[in-house]
Amino acid sequence: MSASNTTSTHPAAFLLMGIPGLEHLHIWISIPFCSAYTLALLGNCTLLLIIQAEAALHEPMYLFLAMLATIDLVLSSTTLPKMLAIFWFRDREINFFACLVQMFFLHSFSIIESAVLLAMAFDRYVAICKPLHYTTVLTGSLITKIGMAAVARAVTLMTPLPFLLRGFHYCRGPVIAHCYCEHMAVVRLACGDTRFNNIYGIAVAMLIGVLDLFFIILSYIFILQTVLQLSSQEARYKAFGTCVSHIGAILAFYTPAVISSFMHRMARHAAPHVHILLANIYLLFPPMINPIIYGVKTKQIRDRVLGVFLRKDV
């Protein structure tokens, strides 16, 4: 397929470079990437199967965890197969519309994951600060509405981007200096006035990241106040212990994002592959580590997994 199309203002396809400057190491880089993707698939599928099969896990905390596992599967599967195709087979071409679809799913599900982490913070707040109201507040109906609101917010914010990008004339060539179709990487190839895309992208990132993180931190301030008021050290340890997995998931999601954002603004002269590797860590690390965090720290899930292996040994 030709990488350009003279009858249209946009190319028929883009060419993804992979990791610029490290093309000679793509095969070696693919090893940790493939390993991380395999762990993400196995871990998140295992979580979903355990939560679905175990009636005792059909509680709000685990339903939110199932949402998180589903999101992580979509996020990693949106980008990793194409990345590995670039690394292994030098299959760099991606159809223009497939690129827009990849970008839409990538950014939408990142926004949904942020919303689910916020919902999980609310779950912990109610469980610790309002335990007598837990079952009456976090009903199945409310959880469904929270999930639908998270999806609606993401779709509403991300739907304009593909249409805006489709209207640009791409005069800077079809080569995207990235492993996947990230919004600003595509915008850099467009001619004309792209200020709205730049401002909109930054505004959405700031709105979602700052607002969600603010309410997560606020929830934990209330949780910490309640925990410190408990009479015994054992009760304080037990109450806060139920939050450890969630805090780990928050750090896994937001830390790479903050570091990547900091590098883009404070280390603009760093080699391009540094920024791209950080962006890939942001996509790869949470889906890989979340099942491990919850598998190790959540007794019900840990016991179920150990039970499967023990039965096999018998």
Could you write a compact summary of the structure shown?
This protein is mainly α. It has twelve helices and three strands; from the N terminus they run βααβααααβαααααα.
How do the strands and helices of this protein lay out in sequence?
Elements: E1 13-16, H1 26-53, H2 60-89, E2 93-95, H3 96-129, H4 134-137, H5 140-158, H6 160-166, E3 175-176, H7 183-187, H8 195-228, H9 233-241, H10 244-266, H11 272-297, H12 299-313
Parallel strand pairs: 1-3
Antiparallel strand pairs: 1-2
Helix pairs in contact: 1-2, 1-11, 2-3, 2-11, 3-5, 3-6, 3-8, 3-10, 8-9, 10-11, 11-12
Transmembrane segments: 25-50, 62-88, 94-122, 134-155, 199-223, 235-254, 274-296
Domain G-protein coupled receptors family 1 profile: 43-294
Protein name: Olfactory receptor
Structural notes for this entry:
- The chain has 314 residues and is mainly alpha-helical.
- Helix content is 75%, strand content 3%.
- Strands 2-1-3 form a three-stranded mixed β-sheet.
Number of domains: 1
Mean pLDDT: 89
Q: What sort of overall outline do the alpha carbons produce when their principal axes are compared?
A: globular
DSSP strand count: 3
Keywords for this structure?
three-stranded mixed β-sheet, Rhopdopsin 7-helix transmembrane proteins
